[in-house]
Amino acid sequence: MSFYKRKELPIVITALCALLMICAYFFKIPEAKSASTTVQTWMLVMVNFSVVVGFVMVIRMHKRRIDKRQPGDKSWLYSVWLIVLLIAYVLLGIYGVESTRTAAPTNDWTFNWVFTNALVALDSAMYSLLAFFIASASFRAFKARTKEAGVLLISGAITMLYNAPAGSAIFGPLAPSFNDLGDWILNVPNMAGFRGILIGAAVGAISLGIRVLTGRERGYLGAGE
Amino acid sequence: MSFWKKLEAVDARVIYLILWIAIGLPLLTPLYLPLSISPDTVNYHKAIEALPAGAVVAFGMDVSPAGYGGELGPQARATAYHLFTKPVKIVFVSFWETGAPLIQDVWKNRFVADAMKDKKYGEDYVNLHWIPGSETGMAAFAEDVWKTVPADYKGTKLADLPMMAKIKSVNDFALLVCIETGTPGGPEYLRQWQARNRNLKMLVGSLGVSVPANIAYMASGQYVSILRGGRGATEYQYILKIVTPTDVQGSDAMTMSHMVVLVFLLLGNLGYLATKGQKGGKK
After folding, report:
1. Where are the domains of chain B?
2. Which alpha helices (H) appear in chain A, and where do they start and end?
3. Residue B130 and residue A190: Cβ atoms within 8 Å?
4. Mean pLDDT over each residue of chain A, to the nearest integer
5. Size of interface A-B (CB pairs under 8 A)
6. What burial class does residue B54 get, using C-beta atoms within 10 Å of its C-beta: 0-12 exposed, 13-18 middle, 19+ buried?
7. Looking at CA atoms only, how far is residue A69 from chain B in angstroms?
8. A contacts of B104 (beta carbons < 8 Å)
9. Please, what's the b/e burial string for B5-21 (b: 16 or more CB within 10 A of its CB; e: otherwise)?
10. pLDDT of res. A5
């Protein structure tokens, strides 16, 4: 097998980087700290390159969709629209940097205007559509079919009311008691559940880290042997 | 067909229309629904009030446009306004590429712009814009600010920004305010920043949906306090006395949408109980 295709080299590099980070974090070794900062800076540079790779990959993927379009299926038009907007927005960003001679395109009025008035507005609108689906789903699906579902339903309703800006105030003089109840649900049963999830996830992350460090976890190297 | 069965078979579009009216009504005219201030918002305000003169504050604008447009925008603007009224140094930064452009949008708010009048860029506040790399970027920034971000959003070198002379690593920050949509956000800051600087206080502005997950960090004392979604934002604006009719409209619309969902929840369950066991009904 070609030297470049062998998996030992990436595993050794990963293990060395991981050991360096662990040493820098847990021990006060100035050399390790300095080396880890340098490696982290490399990572930031690589992230910037990965944006370019991502840009090319997205265009390739959607170009393939356009090439394989079927008669009667108009969904390929979305791919055309995506590529047009992607390239237009990149060009707008480059123009923004060049026209203002600064480090960020956000200093350019046009780029900023498009970002704030198109992206923010559209993204917020998409997110707010959830309210309509939740309203419909709560009416049709959220039923107290069992005792457990009943508990979930009641606690969910209280939490929802508690989180609404004027939710508790509608109870008038009983508002403080209602707030206490909302606090209790969040601070006792909810927190107990979330702590369990957090601790479980942390233990999982540690074991995954050990597997990567020892070369047992190879998923990040890609598919195949 | 019984009333409940008819109700259960109601078209989803009718539900959407009712919700649309309920949300639209306060957007046309503010209802000024009553609001109580939660202790978390009071503690959030107190933590900023207690900052000593000259303290360095990191303002993490880690938001998506969706989160910013609704709940996090008012939180960010109120927090920025409050910080600008205090004699502190502010470092704006974002680990979300979508959050960085919104830092300048926060500055455009009339209350924030008013409070910024007496502040000088580079001496009282800086904008370090977007740092790539997510959690790794946070770690790199925490270790060495200058190596990670050589220049600000305008391309000015950090050496030319007087306030940056004393800000070299996370150990130089007294407070971190993190307005967060998701990952990277509060928990990543805990791991990469607070783990390196145990004295770093943290305030988190969170989406309503993320509040249950953030509560655990507050109980452990790692977060000083959190702003709870849109409700927290409006409460904070009331405390700072910068609430506008538009903010009240947003807050009222949010309350109305919650109420409608609750009414549907109630009706749906009443219908279920009424038809339960009936021939052809729910079992």
Report:
1. 3-30+248-275, 39-241
2. 8-26, 30-67, 76-100, 109-114, 121-140, 147-163, 175-185, 191-213
3. no
4. 88
5. 201
6. exposed
7. 32
8. 106-107, 112
9. eebbebeeeebbeebbe
10. 66
Q: Which of residues 60-89 of A touch B (CB under 8 A)?
A: none
Could you give the residue ranges of the DSSP H alpha helices within B1-160? 3-8, 12-28, 39-49, 65-67, 73-84, 100-108, 110-116, 134-143, 145-148
- CA A34 from chain centre, in angstroms, equals 29
**Structural element, H or E, at residue B175:** strand B175-180
CB contact under 8 A, B269 and A115: no
Chain A segment 19-38 residues within 8 A of B by beta carbon are 33, 36-37
Q: Locate tokens 């500055």: which residue?
A: B107
Rounded distance between C-alpha atoms, residue A81 and residue A93, angstroms: 18
Determine the topology of domain B39-241 in CATH: Rossmann fold (3.40.50)
Query: Which residue among B66, B140, B251 places its CB closest to the CB of A165?
Result: B251
Range of the domain at A171: 142-225
DSSP strand pairing (B125-130 vs B225-228): unpaired
The pLDDT assigned to A164 comes to 84
pTM: 0.90
Q: How confident is the model at residue B283 (pLDDT cuts 50, 70, 90)?
A: very low
Structurally, chain A folds into a number of domains equal to 1
Interface residue A186 vs chain B (CB under 8 A): yes
